[in-house]
């Protein structure tokens, strides 16, 4: 094409997981990407309510692609349906060929969708939800069904992040809104190339080289269910357990470890993205026992680093990334005996973790930014007839 297609992407704020993908899209010569942010709070150190500590990301969040920070009507430094709220969205989208929007349950997203409709610009919708991602009352489900039925005519295509998300869109939008898979992926090469655990890290953590290592890395809050992992670990504490993260549950977890004399547990606090690959390399298995987890991109990162994973069946990634007994195991969320059995399966044979780690690395190579580019191109070709997939 002589003239690149102008694609606008609207999202709440710069997100560490998304920045590498946006840089990759910006390299496409026939896609002229501009990212519109509602807030810039993540570019500074800020108090993350999930981690419970001040967070300053050490990865570049806005480099390598064009971006604009919209003028705020409301921005309280958090993400919610009512923050951020921006002004000038209609004017900002004028002249674009398509709008890609992340999420729909916020005033900013709805503003952008309506503005695109008014301008005759096709809307590509990407979001994380799946049908069992959280508990909802019958009334809330009925209201949600009505809201999405009203939204459906405003959406041209959806960009499912995985199998469960695709089922969500089919449930609410039916077959009238086409789907073009755009998998939830991370920069696989980044984690694969940095997955080296120097001996000084093992020494600093005072880890016995003869004992395998279990890793948990996430926010320490009830929904992440780290206590389930700690209880399963306590049934046979012959390995080491590294807990990376902070949050409201940390005092309770530390108290449990003390009361049960779990001397193999290490609490290492929040670890930034540049440091995590060393922990993945150190671990024999990564565990994500969450409830109501829309996806769990930390699992992608661990797999890219060659680490097998045990995940709950309420982590949205399980349906696409983990074949039980191959790349790891899937267990029913909250079922501690089942989690213990999965850990026992990993450590039953000295070679099992390494074999599963290789399988995990192989699996995640095909769940990549290149698939995202293909899905985005197919969606743009369908909606604009200006790109060819």
Description:
- There is one protein chain.
- This protein has 389 residues and is α/β, with parallel strands linked by helices.
- It folds into 2 domains: 198 residues, Glycogen Phosphorylase B (Rossmann fold), CATH 3.40.50; 178 residues, 3-Layer(aba) Sandwich (Rossmann fold).
- The chain contains 15 helices and 16 strands.
- The longest helix is centred in the last third of the chain and has 16 residues.
- The two termini are 13 Å apart.
- The mean pLDDT is 93.
Topology record:
Layout: E1 5-11, H1 19-26, E2 31-37, E3 46-48, E4 53-55, E5 66-69, E6 71-74, E7 85-87, H2 89-93, E8 98-102, H3 107-119, E9 123-126, H4 138-151, E10 157-158, H5 163-173, H6 188-193, H7 199-204, E11 213-217, H8 226-234, E12 240-244, H9 250-259, E13 265-269, H10 276-282, E14 285-288, H11 297-304, E15 309-312, H12 318-321, E16 328-331, H13 336-347, H14 352-365, H15 369-384
Parallel strand pairs: 1-2, 1-8, 2-5, 8-9, 9-10, 11-12, 11-14, 12-13, 14-15, 15-16
Antiparallel strand pairs: 3-4, 6-7
């Amino acid at each position: 094409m002589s003239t690149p297609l102008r694609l606008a992407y609207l999202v709440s704020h710069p997100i560490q997981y998304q920045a590498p993908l946006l840089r990759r899209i910006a390299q496409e010569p026939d896609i002229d990407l501009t990212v519109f942010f509602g807030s810039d709070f993540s570019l500074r150190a800020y108090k993350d309510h999930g981690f419970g500590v001040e967070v300053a990301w050490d990865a570049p969040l806005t480099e390598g692609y064009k971006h604009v920070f919209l003028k705020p009507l409301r921005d309280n430094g958090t993400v919610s349906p009512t923050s951020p709220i921006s002004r000038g969205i209609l004017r900002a989208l004028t002249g674009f060929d398509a709008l890609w929007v992340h999420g729909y349950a916020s005033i900013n997203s709805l503003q952008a969708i309506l503005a695109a409709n008014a301008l005759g610009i096709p809307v590509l919708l990407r979001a994380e939800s799946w049908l069992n991602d959280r508990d909802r009352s019958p009334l809330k489900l009925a209201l949600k069904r009505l809201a999405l039925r009203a939204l459906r005519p405003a959406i041209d295509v959806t960009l499912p992040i995985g199998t469960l998300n695709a089922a969500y869109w089919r449930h609410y939008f039916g077959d009238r809104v086409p789907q073009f898979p755009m998998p939830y992926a991370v920069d696989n090469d980044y984690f694969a190339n940095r997955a080296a655990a120097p001996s000084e890290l093992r020494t600093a953590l005072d880890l016995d080289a003869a004992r395998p290592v279990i890793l948990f890395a996430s926010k320490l809050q009830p929904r992440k269910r780290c206590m389930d992992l700690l209880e399963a670990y306590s049934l046979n504490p012959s390995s080491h357990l590294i807990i990376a993260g902070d949050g409201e549950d940390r005092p309770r977890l530390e108290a449990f470890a003390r009361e049960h004399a779990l001397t193999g547990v290490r609490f290492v606090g929040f670890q930034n993205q540049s440091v995590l690959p060393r922990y993945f390399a150190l671990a024999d298995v990564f565990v994500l026992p969450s409830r109501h987890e829309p996806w769990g991109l930390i699992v992608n990162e661990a797999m890219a680093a060659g680490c097998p994973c045990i995940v709950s069946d309420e982590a949205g990634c399980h349906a696409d990334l983990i074949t039980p007994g191959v790349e790891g195991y899937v267990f029913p969320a909250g079922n501690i005996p089942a989690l213990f059995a999965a850990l026992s399966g990993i450590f039953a044979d000295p070679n099992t973790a390494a074999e599963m780690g290789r399988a995990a690395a192989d699996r995640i190579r095909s769940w990549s930014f290149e698939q995202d580019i293909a899905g985005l191109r197919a969606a743009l070709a369908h909606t604009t007839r200006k790109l060819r997939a």
